[in-house]
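thought: user wants a sequence for this fold. calling inverse folding tool.
action: design(structure=
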């Protein structure tokens, strides 16, 4: 087997992307190493030799892994071998999957596995867009029938200017974090988070990103011509036209009625009856079936899509009776769970979320580890999608990729409205429980999450709402749909989620199944989304015009104080002895950040004040001329020693005790008494000269 190394490169922004194949992983259908700077990603693509017999969908599996060795480290903890994927790895796996899936040729049902590994990481080049490009290139040069190359870039906004593939350092100060993937002809996937950018700014960023994508796709296409294998289409199983015609004849009258039923469960029951009628007619018990069952099911889906799309384009009426811009009825309740810190019930049509906000100290933060090191999220959102929310029986346990992705989208959408830690020093957890679902449950999580934050008394900077948009595109006809249903997501061409307020956007996510989305359609979709989210936001503000002025009595109280970073060790003490003593005496929870911000948490404000006084005593500097309430620690013939601050004491000479002569101090004070003393002087060795006499009238 030859080991001829083939490379090709393209410059995107300030980065050069170098694609390489032929030397590593030569037994895979396709394998590419993509380098940018000293970041290197290996991606491989493999396909089963035969199509899955009973499948009517593409069995594609994408897995992305960040090897800790790529950054010269190992995983923390006892287990050093990397195991189940982290949240970040799951999210990037989804980013790779979403734009690639629509690009496989129709009728391809072979099992496909795409793997991407970060082998070297320089801390400069962002690995996410590189992983998508590497996976695309591996598929393109393989014999797996991908229609055309997919490229991906990241777009940031630094100092008011858009930046293509910004460095990790630039991302830290960027007002925009946009991941965009597509072909040279159109956009397929967008995932973006920003600090209230306008629709016009978002469109400008998308257009800049697409210019970089075009260059990448042209490069991958040239690489295919140079080293690519001939595509293996021998296993393609296109849907026969006679199956479509047979299913259409039987299902049309039934689907015409079913797709116009407003209630989801009744509509699905009618669709199931249409399916049973088709199966009974085409698979009689006493005859040999003319068609394959999975072909019939695939045809039924296509026919359902055809009639739903025709109904919307011809009549501007959707399955639930709304027109294209209408929002479903909204019902909102707050404080529905009395013992939680904040809660809200958000219902929009047949989609419903019970969202809970929990407040806590630093120990409640979500700790995690990635290539950059160990970190903690001060704010995080967990999304739960139990099977009963869609009237089904299903698995309950660890979250699936969809739950992780939906939760992260809602989390990033709300992150932009949180107050700074200095103003609100709490760790915040949002829990979104989807109790009913008929489209756009992630946007219900955003709305419910915002309401739960406000109910908990979190001083959000500006409330936000979210909406999901859809699209039906047939030739030169199209209809943009506001607040889409589940069926419109499944059978339509686009799922475009946008969050924000009337002034700007905080998050947006788009998945497109076709390449025909023009800038004009996208502009129109953003404008219609703005109208929709303002409508939803106004409904929210009618119930909760502002955050509650007081937090729940069940929420912990947290106070902060600032100390000099050089004094942190003094508060902690040798081996943590000092801080443990404060915690044991007061019962509070104490967290100290590297910049000297001390957070003290307790349900009792008296205990918090006691702890603050103790920390202040440890860190305060003695001031000459100031009067302190000191504690007598010892009495000697020539005076008494008084502790004015924890660990800081000085001598009050017997002559400085009173205006009159004192023969024996023990006749006037005893050890442990509290006496006022004034600091007269501090000598070069730090010794304090104190006077009780100076405090007397």
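)
observation: tool returned 697 residues.
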């Amino acid at each position: 087997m030859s080991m001829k190394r083939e490379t090709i490169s393209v410059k995107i922004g300030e980065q050069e992307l170098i694609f390489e194949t032929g030397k590593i992983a030569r037994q895979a259908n396709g394998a590419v190493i993509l380098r940018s700077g000293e970041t290197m990603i290996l991606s491989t693509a493999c396909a089963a030799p035969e199509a899955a017999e009973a499948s009517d969908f593409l069995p594609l599996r994408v897995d992305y892994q960040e090897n800790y060795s790529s950054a010269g480290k190992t995983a923390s903890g006892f287990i050093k071998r990397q195991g189940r994927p982290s949240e970040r790895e799951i999210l990037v796996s989804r980013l790779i999957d979403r734009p690639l899936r629509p690009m496989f040729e129709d009728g391809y049902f072979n099992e496909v596995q795409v793997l991407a590994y970060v082998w070297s990481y320089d801390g400069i080049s962002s690995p996410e867009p590189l992983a998508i490009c590497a996976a695309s290139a591996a598929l393109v040069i393989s014999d797996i029938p991908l229609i055309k190359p997919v490229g991906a870039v990241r777009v940031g906004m630094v100092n008011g200017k858009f930046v293509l593939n910004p460095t990790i350092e630039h991302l830290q100060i960027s007002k925009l974090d946009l991941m965009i993937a597509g072909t040279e002809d159109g956009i397929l996937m967008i995932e973006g988070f920003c600090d209230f950018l306008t629709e016009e700014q978002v469109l400008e960023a998308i257009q800049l990103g697409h210019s970089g994508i075009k260059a990448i796709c042209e490069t991958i296409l040239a690489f295919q011509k140079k080293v690519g294998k001939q595509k293996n289409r021998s296993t393609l199983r296109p849907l026969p036209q006679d199956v479509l015609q047979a299913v259409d004849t039987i299902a049309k009258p039934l689907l015409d009625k079913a797709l116009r039923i407003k209630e989801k469960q009744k509509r699905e029951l009618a669709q199931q009856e249409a399916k049973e009628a088709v199966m009974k007619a085409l698979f009689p018990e006493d005859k040999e079936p003319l068609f394959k069952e999975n072909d019939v099911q695939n045809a039924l889906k296509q026919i359902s899509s055809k009639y739903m799309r025709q109904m919307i384009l011809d009549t501007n009426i959707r399955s639930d009776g709304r027109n294209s811009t209408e929002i479903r009825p909204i019902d909102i309740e707050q404080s529905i769970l009395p013992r939680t810190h904040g809660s809200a019930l958000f219902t929009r049509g047949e989609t419903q979320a019970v969202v809970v906000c929990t407040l806590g100290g630093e120990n409640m933060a979500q700790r995690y580890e990635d290539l950059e090191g160990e970190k903690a999220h001060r704010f995080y959102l967990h999304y739960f999608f139990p099977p009963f929310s869609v009237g089904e029986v299903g698995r309950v346990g660890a979250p699936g990729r969809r739950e992780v992705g939906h939760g992260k989208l809602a989390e990033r959408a709300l992150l932009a409205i949180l107050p700074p830690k200095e103003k609100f020093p709490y760790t915040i957890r949002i829990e979104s429980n989807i109790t009913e679902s008929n489209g756009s449950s992630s946007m219900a999580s955003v709305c419910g999450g915002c309401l739960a934050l406000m109910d908990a008394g979190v001083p959000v900077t500006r409330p936000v709402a979210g909406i999901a948009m859809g699209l039906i595109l047939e030739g030169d006809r199209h209809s943009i749909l506001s607040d889409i249903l589940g069926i419109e997501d499944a059978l339509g061409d686009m799922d475009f989620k946008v969050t924000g307020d009337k002034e700007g956007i905080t998050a947006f996510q788009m998945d497109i199944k076709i390449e025909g989305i023009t800038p004009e359609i996208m502009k129109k979709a953003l404008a219609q989304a703005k109208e929709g989210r303002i409508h939803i936001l106004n409904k929210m503000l009618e119930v909760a015009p502002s955050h509650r002025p007081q937090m729940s009595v069940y929420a912990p109280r947290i106070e902060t104080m600032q100390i000099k970073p050089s004094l942190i060790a003094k508060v902690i003490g040798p081996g943590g002895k000092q801080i443990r003593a404060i915690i044991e005496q007061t019962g509070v929870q104490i967290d100290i950040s590297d910049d000297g911000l001390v957070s003290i948490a307790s349900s009792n404000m008296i205990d918090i004040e006691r702890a603050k006084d103790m920390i202040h005593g440890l860190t305060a500097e003695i001031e000459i001329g100031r009067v302190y309430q000191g504690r007598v620690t010892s009495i000697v013939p020539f005076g008494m020693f008084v502790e004015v601050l924890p660990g800081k004491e000085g001598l009050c000479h017997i002559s400085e005790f009173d205006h009159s002569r004192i023969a024996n101090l023990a006749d006037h004070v005893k050890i442990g008494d509290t006496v006022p003393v004034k600091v007269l002087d501090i000598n070069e060795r730090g010794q304090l000269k104190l006077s009780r006499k100076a405090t007397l009238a």
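thought: summarizing for user.
answer: Here is the designed sequence. The chain has a mean pLDDT of 92.
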